[in-house]
Amino acid sequence: MKKFISFFVIINLLxxxxxxxxxxMPVYNDYLTDNYYVLHPAMAxxxxxxxxxRSSYRTQWLGIKNPPSVQSLNxxxxxxxxxxxxxxxxxxxxGFQSQIGAQFTYAHHINFFRSNAEVNQLSxxxxxxxxxxxxxxxxxxxxSGDPLVSGDFQKSFGGYVDLGITYNLLNLYAHLTIxxxxxxxxxxxxxxxxxKPRRIFAxxxxxxxxxxxxxxxxxxxxxxxxxxxxxxxxLNLKTHHSLRVAQIWGGFSYRNGLxxxxxxxxxxxxxxxxNQLSAITGFSSKKWTFSYTYxxxxxxxxxxxxxxxxxxxxxxxxxxxxxxxxxRGIL
Length: 331
Fold this sequence. Notes:
There is one protein chain. By secondary structure, the protein is mainly β. The chain has one domain (2-317): monomeric porin ompg (Porin, Beta Barrel), CATH 2.40.160. The chain is built from one helix and 16 strands. The protein has one helix spanning 2-14, and strands at residues 51-60, 69-78, 83-94, 97-111, 120-136, 153-169, 172-187, 192-194, 199-206, 208-209, 214-225, 232-242, 247-258, 273-285, 288-297, 308-317. Strands 1-2-3-4-5-6-7-9-11-12-13-14-15-16 form a 14-stranded antiparallel barrel. A hairpin with an 8-residue loop joins strand 4 and strand 5. The protein is globular and about 70 Å long. It starts with a helix and ends in a 14-residue tail after the last strand.
């Protein structure tokens, strides 16, 4: 029992891909499933018409009791010619650690397009959010004498402000978002004021039409954490195929980055690097969108071979008559 608890605690602190994710929803690959709003607030309402609803569920390590899981729901819409709004809610359960959070977004869009046949839009987004974090070891066996097992129950609260900018030009898109531009956190149990490093996400991609039925979408995402030695990076490639009644896609995403320790300042020590490969597939039919992502670690140390599974279900309310290309994937 002692060995299992120590191993579980160490894995949670070092190997889980949740870099600086306390008080935030962990960053996975669901942004690639027609869901860039989860990363970039400027994408709220960027699709011109209708309301986009996206819900996702992610679980890891099948076959292990109480495996890590994340559930999220986000909704965003264009409410006027130049304004968009959005909201995101999430629950993150990771063994004896859990957090729930909510955030709300306002986006301002500046349109340079000359007709509905093209996209030339500059967008700015502002997000305000908060989350509640719990750390519960009350059910652990204290007789083991393990220094990592304290048997306590701690709660903390964090609020934050994010700022983002997005530019969409025809089939090209670029995003830049600063998370924790402002942050204030407090440990409820001992009144300790908490700090968080800023985090910058930069995304760039393009939609290449091969013909009227096929398209390729290469993209990359940089994740720069303050005080980290180097950025985390996603290299992505998706292919889109247009059918008479649906659009299907598939692709791969490779992620390389650094895990974190508990320090959140200039003395932070980022431990071993991690590598992950994700396979993504999905389809859109009428107003419905569904996607499945399977992620497996390329590191030598693994919990088991089951990998990570993520399901995303989307629904577009009202009609969106604004189309960029025959195969949609950007907005």
